[in-house]
Amino acid sequence: MTVVAALDIGGTKTAAALVDENGRLLHRRTAPTPAAAGPAAVLDAAAAAVAELAAEGGPYAAVGVGSAGVIDAAAGTVLSATAALPGWTGTALRDELGRRLGVPVAVDNDVHAHALGETWRGAAAGRAHVLLVAAGTGIGGSLILGGRPHRGARSAAGHLGHLPVPYAAGRPCACGGTGHAEAVAAGPAMAAEYGRRAGEAAGEDPATGRGLAVVAERAAAGDAVAVAVLTEGAAALGEAVGGLVNALDPELVLVTGGVSRCGPVWWRPLRAAITATALPLLSDVPVVPGELGDDAALLGAARLALEAVA
Known about the structure:
The protein is an alpha/beta fold and 310 residues long. The chain has 9 helices and 12 strands. It has helices spanning 39-57, 93-101, 110-121, 182-185, 187-198, 212-220, 224-248, 264-277, 295-308; strands spanning 3-9, 13-20, 25-32, 63-67, 70-72, 77-80, 105-109, 130-135, 139-145, 148-149, 252-256, 287-289. The strands form 3 sheets. It has a 5-stranded mixed β-sheet. A hairpin with a 2-residue loop joins strand 9 and strand 10. The longest helix has 25 residues, at 224-248.
C-alpha cells in the first residue's frame, strides 16, 4: 500500500496529512503558517509537519502540495502570490521541499488541488469534466478536463472572481480593476455591503455581528437587507458561472468555500441565475456543493504525489 504526504499551504494555516493510495487520511497536522517570517520559514514549517507525521505514521513515498498563489506545476515554482504570503513569489517550492525531505515532490495551486480531491473522492467522483467554483474571501476556480486541471498558458487559469458582471459595475476589485464578480460576490464584499446598507461599520469580524456568517444568520431570520445582499452576490456569481457553462459545457458545477455555507437564501438565486444564463441545452447542469471541505485540497495534493511515483 503506497502512502504519500500531502500539504495544503495557505497564508493563515498549513495542513499536512499522510494519505494512502485509496484516499484514506491516516494522520494529520494543522499549524499556523509563519508567513511573516518569509518563504524559508514557511518551507521549514511544512517540512517539519511532514517529518512529524512520518515519525508517527511511518514512511511515505512522495509529497504533494497544494499552495496558495499562481503555481507553475511543471517547474514547481510560485509565479505570483498575494501579500498573505510575503515573498512567496519566485519560491522554488518543489525543489526546496524536495531538498528538505529527500523524496519526490509535486505541486499545484490549492484550488486545483481542491478540485482534484473532489473529483477523486468527493462530490465529483467519476466525473471527467468539472467546473469548480471556490467562493470565499476571494473567488477562485478550477476546470477539470479529462480528469486533469486546465492551468492555462501561464498557469493562471481559474481566476473566476475577475470575470466582469453587471452587478459589480463601478465597484473596485482587489486586483485593481473594477466591475469584477469578486467585488460583489466574495464574502468580504457582501459583508461590507451589508454594513453599508444597514448603516453599520463595514468590514468587521463576525464576532461583532457584521461578518458574513452573521449576515447569513440574519438573512435566514428574514432580515430584508441581508437577504438582498446575499441574493445580489449569488446572482452576480451565478451569471458569471452560467456564462462559463455556455463556454465550457461541464458535466457538473461544484461550488465550495465559506460563502457556499450561507444556506438556501444564497443557493436559490445562485442556481436560478446559472439556469437563466445558460443555454437551454445546458440549463440542467447539476450545481452541487462540495463534500470534502478542507480535506479536498489534501486529497488532491495526495493525488499529485501518487501520480509522481506511479
